[in-house]
TrEMBL record:
<dbReference type="InterPro" id="IPR002182">
    <property type="entry name" value="NB-ARC"/>
</dbReference>
<dbReference type="InterPro" id="IPR027417">
    <property type="entry name" value="P-loop_NTPase"/>
</dbReference>
<dbReference type="InterPro" id="IPR010730">
    <property type="entry name" value="HET"/>
</dbReference>
<dbReference type="Pfam" id="PF00931">
    <property type="entry name" value="NB-ARC"/>
</dbReference>
<dbReference type="Pfam" id="PF06985">
    <property type="entry name" value="HET"/>
</dbReference>
<feature type="region of interest" description="Disordered">
    <location>
        <begin position="712"/>
        <end position="731"/>
    </location>
</feature>
<dbReference type="InterPro" id="IPR011990">
    <property type="entry name" value="TPR-like_helical_dom_sf"/>
</dbReference>
<feature type="domain" description="AAA+ ATPase">
    <location>
        <begin position="281"/>
        <end position="417"/>
    </location>
</feature>
<dbReference type="InterPro" id="IPR003593">
    <property type="entry name" value="AAA+_ATPase"/>
</dbReference>
<dbReference type="Pfam" id="PF13424">
    <property type="entry name" value="TPR_12"/>
</dbReference>
<protein>
    <submittedName>
        <fullName>HET-domain-containing protein</fullName>
    </submittedName>
</protein>
<dbReference type="GO" id="GO:0043531">
    <property type="term" value="F:ADP binding"/>
</dbReference>
Length: 731
């Protein structure tokens, strides 16, 4: 491998290393221009005036900044006139990018007018998404291979890395976030990997095949001139010779990234691991403790450790905070596992998942039910799988619930120890101060709560204040709590929330509006597309970035969605109620949901299932019994989708609500009232309540005949159904 470096006099030179002696090096990823610095320029000491030489200097200087002496750039490190060297380089390229200590992606068509690019994403996000770098064939492997790839603008400003920009990269490339986080490529199907090349181009048509060899882990001879079709055929032949089609398909369905700053709790993690997969039946463990103490983060860390330790253990994350979130989580698992029967419109996905995981063929698995505070109300116990190969973790603030879910195995999360809390604070602070006494005073004020520590550190970082200054703000807010909550932890979170929220309102009104909006829908899995549209689009991206920076939201990067911690959600709703804005803001949420909620056709099933928790939450909270057209229409859509999903009892309740509202507002003989009546009859029929269904349909038909006329389509449909039901009932 030929590597570049600057000699003692500052002259650019190169040296060759054998495979065994290659030192740490940086590598450049870029798109070629018409005036590149080439191998011949390197050998002859020419070309320093070329545009491409600036990229060479950038890579070398950035490598030096990262304490790396050597670096590699494809334009000048390969003698392309030597076919053997060229062939070896192309076959080794993926490995070279994979083994690099640093990879710098230089985006020549992205500029950053602001000095602090990472703090002003809105100024370059649009050009980043349109960058030519994402359209070239070779840059695909340059994105996938390195563990660390950093993106730089044409102004040499660092934009972020593969981890911090994974959401944007996922949206641009459609490459799963799990892959961008480093999951092995051989866990992804061949067709999906092939699909990543869609829309990309190469200068030489054969390179559309050659640029894929590292992604599929094969090597092949290069024959420029053979054409793309033949090159792809030979690539396919090489793949079939190897083990490309033997993939590890162990599912890991967890919506959150691993917390790289997770601190402490090692004794609890060891205790949890020791309780899993013991005995001949499903092991169940409950993690309990007050809100904000870190139950979810502990379960998340455990999930990632199990993934690393038990390679063949499937891991599934289920939000159990309410019935709709539970149902949506089960549906997501069913889709990802492609469980037979899923396409049946009347299938209960919870039962499908339960039966699948209870079978021996499912193998070893771990289920995490997060926020299982209302286990009985959401019907959690009814759909728990049972298998000696399985283990279940519950997180809950309710000690009684924990005792019911896992009576023999409860892990109570204690208050974080002072030393651990101090280390956590230092981890989250950008500029940790070496003032232990001041830090300890703040931590005591924060009740050693992880959520409070994270939010306090976020505020200190963004606003560049001292720890004593934040402690002063905290004391002021704690004193001003008009209606103290029941637990100290909730009071502390309410105070840290208010400190940050007031600052957000002053400096980013759209971010504040987004938070208030999310307080009126379910707090889990809020799709970014559900948030009111921003103009320009970059402003919305910046607003979400603000909420993330203040640790108000957790990103579900793979699903392009956000979660709010329960206490953040509660604090925001309490503020709305105190200000007399809860009803108004709930109406905003209902109006927006009505705009995006799909009809009940089968093709929209996954979308309506995802939005249903938000629609039901918005409808059931915040409004004081007031009726309007938007609310009634949203109730109607929810009822239709529940009916299509075979959830007839729940659909019945909403159809009755719509019928009663329509009757009260429009009258018993209004067409909308009659339609609601007919749908309620269909729902009763689906439940096997035949006599009630026939009686109601007879009444509905008679009214339709009188009001709409006997030839009206609705009247004819009702008559047809009525005749069919009566005939079935006689049989």
């Amino acid at each position: 491998m030929r590597l570049l470096y600057f000699d003692g006099s500052g002259r650019l030179t190169s040296t060759n290393f054998s495979q065994e002696t290659i030192p740490p090096y940086a590598i450049l990823s870029h798109t070629w221009c018409d005036d590149e610095f080439l191998f011949e320029d390197l050998m002859n000491g020419t070309g320093h005036g070329k545009a491409g030489y600036k990229k060479i200097m950038f890579c070398g200087e950035q490598a030096a900044h990262d304490h790396l002496q050597y670096f590699w750039v494809d334009t000048c490190c390969i003698d392309k006139w030597k076919l053997r060297e060229l062939s070896n380089a192309i076959n080794s390229m993926f490995q070279w990018y994979e083994n690099a200590a640093r990879c710098y992606a230089f985006l020549s068509d992205v500029s950053t007018p602001m000095a602090d690019a990472h703090l002003h994403e809105g100024t370059w996000d649009a050009s980043f998404r349109k960058s030519r770098w994402f359209t070239r064939g070779w840059t695909l492997q340059e994105l996938l291979a390195p563990a660390l790839i950093e993106f730089f603008s044409s102004d040499r400003q660092r934009l972020g890395d593969k981890d911090s920009l994974k959401q944007q990269i996922h949206e641009i490339t459609r490459i799963p976030v799990t892959v961008l986080r480093g999951d092995p490529l051989d866990e992804v199907s061949v067709p999906e990997r092939m699909a990543w090349m869609a829309g990309r181009q190469t200068t030489q048509e054969e390179d559309m095949a050659y640029s894929l060899i590292g992604i599929f882990g094969v090597s092949m001879e290069f024959r420029y001139g053979e054409g793309m079709k033949r090159a792809l055929e030979r690539l396919q032949e090489e793949m079939e010779k190897g083990t490309v089609y033997t993939t590890n398909t162990t599912p890991f369905i967890v919506p959150f990234d691993q917390n790289t700053r997770f601190t402490g709790r090692e004794s609890q993690l060891a205790e949890l691991e020791g309780k899993l997969f013991v005995g001949a039946s499903t092991t169940k463990v409950a993690i309990t403790g007050p809100g904000g103490i870190g139950k979810t983060q502990l379960a998340l860390e455990l999930a990632y450790r199990i993934k690393k330790k038990l390679k063949n253990c499937s891991v599934f994350w289920i939000s159990a905070s309410d019935k709709e979130s539970l149902y949506q989580s089960y549906a997501h698992i069913a889709r990802r596992l492609n469980i037979p029967g899923l396409d049946d419109e009347k299938a209960d996905v919870r039962k499908l998942v339960q039966l699948h995981l209870s079978s021996e063929s499912a193998g070893q698995w771990l289920l995490v039910f997060d926020n299982a505070d209302e286990a009985k109300a959401v019907g959690l116990m009814e759909f728990l799988p049972s298998s000696g190969q399985g283990a279940i973790i519950f997180t809950t603030t309710n000690r009684k619930t924990a005792a019911k879910l896992a009576p023999q195995s409860i892990v109570e999360l204690p208050e974080m120890e002072q030393d651990t809390a101090r280390r956590m604070l230092e981890t989250y602070l950008v500029n940790p101060a070496n003032e232990q006494e001041k830090a300890d005073l703040l931590l005591k004020g924060l009740a050693y709560l992880p959520l409070a520590i994270v939010q306090a550190a976020a505020y200190v970082n963004i606003n560049k204040i001292t720890l004593p200054e934040y402690l002063s703000l905290l004391a002021e807010k704690m004193e001003g709590l008009v209606e103290p909550l029941h637990r100290e932890s909730e009071n502390v979170i309410a105070a840290t929330w208010l400190i940050s929220f007031e600052q957000i309102r002053r400096h980013d009104t759209l971010a504040a509006d987004y938070l208030l909006f999310m307080a009126c829908v379910d707090r889990n899995d809020v799709p970014l597309a559900l948030l009111p549209a921003a103009s320009p689009h970059e402003q919305g991206i910046h607003a979400v970035g603000t909420l993330d920076a203040y640790s108000f939201v957790t990103k579900r990067t793979a699903e392009s969605a956000l979660d709010l911690h329960r206490l953040v959600h509660v604090s925001t709703r309490n503020w709305l109620e105190k200000e007399g804005l809860l009803s108004q803001q709930s109406q905003v949420a209902i109006t927006r949901l009505l705009e995006v909620f799909p009809d009940d056709n089968h093709g929209s099933r996954s979308k309506w299932r995802r939005l249903l928790p938000h629609a039901k939450f918005a409808l059931l909270s915040g409004l004081t019994g007031q009726e309007d057209e938007a609310k009634t229409n949203l109730v109607w859509k929810c009822a239709m989708t529940l009916n299509s999903d075979g959830r007839w009892k729940e659909a019945e309740e909403l159809f009755v609500q719509v019928m009663e509202t329509s009757s009260r507002v429009r009258g018993d003989e209004h067409p909308d009232t009659l339609t609601s009546m007919a749908n309620l009859a269909y729902t009763w029929k689906s439940q096997g309540r035949n006599r009630e269904a026939i009686s109601l349909m007879e009444r509905c038909f008679e009214l339709q005949r009188q009001i709409l006329g006997p030839q009206h389509p609705s009247t004819e449909t009702s008559l047809e159904a009525l005749n069919e039901w009566q005939m079935e009932n006689r049989d």
